[in-house]
Specification:
heterotrimer; A: alpha/beta; D-Maltodextrin-Binding Protein, domain 2; three-stranded antiparallel β-sheet; 10 strands; C: mainly alpha; MetI-like fold; 9 helices; about 80% helix
């Protein structure tokens, strides 16, 4: 381990000396990482919320079991950050969600059904990337309110919010403010205009606290979030399928999708349903177990490692 | 880097409830609350330590210890611990101000204490010889003589607080940090770099105001000894946020 | 505590990465700051612009610097180089002034004595001026070391793993244990670096221990 870290340090020092200024916008670069040309080494990334890190750990464990060399770079902020990293080869594989990723790539994508979301995603993916088999597990964004707010305004669906939204503050991750998949999209699809939008975190403790203590009256939480049940929150029904279908799906660099990698990841998707995912997330978030441990236990129990 | 200029000069970004003017005002507000609280704690304590000579070692160690506390970690702990105890918008504001105060106190304290300690002992003796009480020595001789270093401490704190207040945007507060966090969230480099420029400009502007106030407040007869002022400055440099 | 015991390996790995990310900029920073500090000391008119730009650099929030680095360097978004170079900028900013102060603290009579003995130019700088400036430079280095350790943790917001990852992970799960362990580990690392520099500076300047004036 020491040796590896030392090598890392030396590499940094060397890179500093060489530091070739290949100017220009790094986000526009699509050249694959030259050092990772071998298909048997894969760098797995994840977004900055526990469920996504857990999924990345599951993928990593399944691949390692099949002899693939795996490097993990987890907790990479939002899509706006990790998608460029995926495109330029800094990471090769990331757990995604069919609907949300389609909308990110194409704001007009149809994600109303599972099949539509998958088709939209495949159509919108850049040439260098590929999406494997989706899992039946879904984790949707939601507009969630407290039980008290739901009762006060008689809310069960997102449509019910339309007449009262002008008095309510919506909370969500910062990127929601401008994303078609956030505030602008809600306005377009539902005609919802909230009094204000408050940038919180990615459906994490800030969002839960802000909803609980009344800083926001409606907020984005994930449907697999154990905090919804624990706090007796109400997730409003998405009648217009704005959040659409959100099957968990491995997205990876095409050149890395060897038959063994594809088989290993598809085997994971085949076993992963929504209840399983919610249970695993609860172990990480509520029981404070390590994502890597939860992942490897589950893989073992399902004969995937 | 022209995108920075475009962002900064677009009047649309200056207006509205999430525009630059509002964020500037919020940022200044957080800094002002923090500095008032930190000064209320740090200056009297520093004066007392400098005047009595007690607790000197504790202060030096405290200042060094606090400097090594990672701000981001402290901020998260404060939110998780204090947040649930509070309701409404102060639920995240109070933990943020708490963390900023923790950062701001040591330089102020060190400035006040070092200022008193740097007072020429012969001036102190002369004051005592004139029959001044301990309080009179403190207020009429030591504090005026210590003002340059007290200001130096305040100014380091201010720079540090203005730079660090950006991190509070990661726990949903306003201020100029919003442009960094939001800019990161949707990869808007103009907004991020513009936000960084604004933070630096604000820090410079506030420091300039302090410099002017200091010039007015400090007796012109007090020309600090060059070497001692220098070493004090080195000691009081702020951490970047 | 229980969490810590169960995660010794993980914390250890993060600590090593954290230490490297904090220390490498320190070393590069010293190497760069010595010639710059010498310039500021040698040419008076350079001092003010250098000191002012130092103040400016310090007010750039680290988060912004980390994220903007790829634009300037052409590096990847997740490249630890972004952190290393950003911290090098802060270190240089702090040390240029310190080196200049350190060189200024060398007594004139020593320099005159050296010159009279025929030691001049580059040789005098490395054998007389620089060694005598070590205590002041070391003091600045200690400040830089401690603040570097704190700043590195901010890079966790960008997905660069080090002790700061314990903060983001703990926060996302509303779990204090990893955050507290991360804070303590950061403080210990800062303390160790501080001591190493202190001891190193003492070893480099044996004359300061004998109590004899330099």
């Amino acid at each position: 381990m020491m040796k590896k870290k030392l090598a890392f340090g030396v590499a940094i020092a060397a890179a500093l000396v060489l530091s070739a200024c290949s100017s220009g916008n790094p986000l526009g670069s699509t050249s694959p990482n030259p050092s990772g040309a071998s298909a048997t080494s894969i760098t797995v990334g994840s977004a900055n919320f526990p469920e996504n890190e857990l999924l990345a750990d599951i993928y990593a464990g399944a691949l390692t079991a099949k002899g693939v060399t795996v490097t993990k770079k987890l907790n990479i902020a939002s899509r706006e950050t990790y998608v460029p990293a995926l495109k330029n080869g800094e990471i090769d594989l990331i757990p995604e969600y069919t609907g949300a990723f389609s909308k990110y790539l194409n704001p007009d994508a149809d994600i109303s059904t599972e099949a539509a979301a998958l088709a939209s995603l495949k159509a919108a993916l850049p040439d260098t990337l590929t999406a494997l088999e989706p899992a039946s597990a879904q984790d949707k964004d939601s507009i969630t309110v407290t039980r008290a707010t739901a009762t006060q305004y008689n809310l069960t669906t997102i449509d019910d919010l339309v007449p009262v939204a002008k008095d309510l503050v919506l909370g969500g991750p910062p990127e929601w403010k401008n994303r078609s998949y956030g505030v602008p999209g809600l306005k377009k699809t539902y005609g919802l205009s909230f009094k204000d939008f408050k940038a919180l975190d990615t459906a994490g403790p800030l969002t839960v606290q802000a909803l609980k203590n009344g800083q926001v009256q409606a907020a984005n939480l994930f449907t697999t979030d154990p905090a919804i049940k624990a706090n007796d929150f109400v997730s409003l029904t998405d009648t217009k399928s704005f959040f659409g279908a959100q099957n968990v799906i491995p997205v990876l660099t095409k050149t890395k999708a060897t038959p063994e990698v594809t088989a290993a990841l598809n085997a994971v998707s085949a076993k992963l349903d929504t209840d399983t995912l919610a249970t695993l997330v609860t172990k990480v978030v509520v029981d404070k177990q390590d994502a890597a441990t939860v992942a490897s236990d589950w893989l073992k129990a399902n004969g995937l490692s | 880097m022209s995108f920075v200029w475009e962002w900064l000069t677009n009047p649309a970004y200056w207006q509205g409830s999430d525009g630059i003017w509002v964020r500037l005002a919020e940022h200044l507000g957080y800094a002002a609350i923090t500095l008032v609280v930190a000064a209320a704690i740090g200056i009297p304590l520093g004066l007392w330590i400098g005047h009595t000579g007690r607790g000197r070692l504790a202060v030096v160690n405290l200042a060094n210890g606090v400097r090594s506390v990672p701000t981001l970690g402290l901020l998260f702990v404060a939110v998780l611990v204090l947040g649930p105890l509070l309701a409404g918008d102060i639920a995240f504001l109070v933990p943020a101000i708490f963390v900023l105060v923790v950062l701001a106190v040591p330089p102020i304290l060190a400035g006040a204490y070092a200022g008193i300690e740097s007072v020429d002992p012969s001036a102190r003796d002369a004051a005592r010889g004139m029959g001044m009480s301990s309080w009179q020595v403190l207020w009429r001789v030591e504090v005026p003589c210590a003002l340059p270093l007290i200001f130096s401490g305040l100014r380091s704190s201010t720079l540090q607080v203005i730079a660090t207040a950006t991190l509070t945007a990661s726990i949903s507060l306003g201020g100029l940090g919003r442009f960094l966090i939001d800019g990161q969230a949707y990869r808007d480099y103009g907004q991020m770099a513009g936000g960084a420029v604004l933070v630096a400009a604000l820090a410079m502007a506030v420091d300039l105001v302090f410099a002017v106030v200091q010039r007015i407040a400090v007796s012109p007869g007090l020309v600090p000894v060059r070497t001692s002022r220098r070493s004090a400055r080195t000691r009081l440099v702020p951490n970047p946020a | 505590m229980k969490w810590f015991v169960g995660h010794l390996g993980q914390v250890g790995d993060l600590l090593v990465t954290h230490a490297l990310l904090a220390v490498i900029p320190l070393i590069i920073g010293v190497v760069l700051a010595i010639p710059l500090g010498w310039l500021a000391h040698r040419f008076r008119w350079l001092r003010t612009p250098l000191v002012v730009s130092t103040g400016l650099l310090y007010t750039i929030p680290s988060l912004a610097l980390f994220i903007l680095m790829p634009l300037v360097l052409g590096t990847g978004i997740l490249d630890p180089l972004n952190v290393v170079i950003a911290l090098t900028v802060y270190t240089v900013a702090l040390l240029v002034r310190t080196v200049a102060d350190g060189l200024a603290s060398v007594p004139d009579e020593v320099i005159q004595a050296a010159t009279a003995m025929g030691v001049g130019g580059v040789r005098r700088f490395f054998t007389v001026d620089l060694p005598l400036a070590v205590p002041v430079i070391a003091a600045g280095l200690r400040v830089a070391a401690v603040s570097n350790v704190s700043i590195v943790s901010v890079a966790a917001l960008l997905g660069i793993a080090q002790l700061g990852s314990l903060f983001t992970d703990g926060f996302a799960r509303n779990f204090l244990d990893p955050i507290v362990v991360g804070i303590v580990a950061c403080m210990l690392l800062a303390l160790v670096l501080d001591l190493v520099i202190l001891v190193g500076s003492r070893l480099l300047t044996p004359w300061t221990r004998s109590g004899a004036a330099a």
